[in-house]
Write a structure and sequence with these properties.
Length: 344
């Protein structure tokens, strides 16, 4: 009798747990994907081409809607692309229910308000592009937990606040980061060094302060790094010389001090180097003139001194040379072809 009672007790509790599992399985499916997209449609106050108004209909399959791609065993929404439609409105929190989404493109619209923290639910997301909108507020910390993210572009918005030190702990797959043309401030996190696959780092035209962390030298896959037009201080870390794949380095218009590290000469793939409009002193290292791939070199608007250029340099690919507003001496050498020189 006691054994039967125990069995009944177990069965009574098995039913609710089984039901709960079934309910959880139904929480996100193609139906909830559709509801999330309808919430997005409802949040759009101006759709000048009436694309969403005419095409995103409750009477048709969500997978046939403009800008929507479905795939996978359960035929879920995996891509959302409504860029370049001139849409005005906000991004609703329901968009976080598109849990199988891999690619999200909402750029080049007129979206306003904040980025909903529910985007942090999109664990499968590989591409997030919200560029060229009017989004405001802080970047939700949950976005930095999207470990599948490869490409993130939040540029040309009005995003504020800083990047916490832990921001990049989980973004080990990130290859391209675009946060330029915002109002971000604070220090650059040293945890950027954990993004070992990063190839493009674009943080220009913000209000970042503090020093360039020396850990940035661990990003050995970097090809393009733009930190220009911020308020960065201190010396250029010599560890930048570890970035031997680097093709473009722009540190222009900051408050950088000290001498140009000779380790920059290790960047044998460098095509463009701009250190203009800082407070750099001393000589331009001769190692810089050993980079045969260099097409653009800018050091204007510093406190550099010495000879303008070594007389025996050979930079066969050099097209633009900016040297003005320094304390250089000597005559501009005769070079072939003739390189333009400008103070800015």
């Amino acid at each position: 009798m006691e054994r039967n009672l125990s069995l009944c007790f177990v069965l009574v509790f098995l039913v609710p747990f089984s039901t709960l599992s079934f309910v959880n399985a139904e929480v996100t499916n193609i139906s909830t994907d559709k509801q999330a997209l309808l919430a997005l449609k409802a949040s759009i106050s101006d759709d000048p081409s009436n694309i969403l108004a005419n095409n995103w209909s409750t009477t048709t399959s969500v997978c046939s809607w403009t800008g929507i791609t479905c795939a996978g065993r359960h035929h879920r929404v995996t891509a959302l692309n409504i860029s370049n439609m001139g849409l005005t409105g906000v991004i609703p929190k329901e968009i976080g229910n598109l849990t199988q989404l891999k690619w999200m493109y909402l750029g080049n619209n007129k979206l306003q308000g904040g980025i909903p923290k529910e985007l942090g639910n999109l664990a499968e997301l590989e591409t997030l592009s919200l560029k060229n909108n009017s989004l405001m507020g802080a970047i939700p910390s949950l976005i930095f937990n999207l470990s599948s993210l490869i490409f993130m572009d939040l540029s040309n918005n009005s995003l504020t606040d800083g990047l916490p030190e832990s921001s990049f702990d989980n973004l080990s797959n990130l290859e391209s980061l675009h946060l330029h043309d915002n109002m971000l401030h604070g220090k650059l996190p040293s945890t950027l060094s954990k993004c070992k696959k990063l190839q493009v780092l674009f943080l220009s035209f913000n209000y970042f302060t503090g020093v360039i962390p020396k850990e940035i030298g661990n990003l050995t896959q970097l090809k393009r790094m733009y930190l220009d037009n911020n308020k960065l201080q201190g010396a250029i870390p010599k560890e930048i010389g570890n970035l031997t794949r680097l093709e473009q380095l722009d540190l222009m218009h900051n408050k950088l001090q000290g001498e140009i590290p000779c380790e920059i000469g290790n960047l044998h793939n460098l095509q463009s180097l701009d250190l203009s409009l800082n407070n750099l002193v001393g000589l331009v290292p001769t190692t810089v003139f050993n980079i045969s791939t260099m097409a653009q070199l800018g050091v204007a608007g510093n406190k550099l001194r010495g000879m303008i250029l070594p007389s025996n340099i050979e930079l066969p690919n050099l097209e633009f040379l900016y040297l003005g507003l320094n304390d250089f001496s000597g005559h501009f050498p005769t070079l072939s072809p003739t390189y333009p020189s400008s103070p800015i």
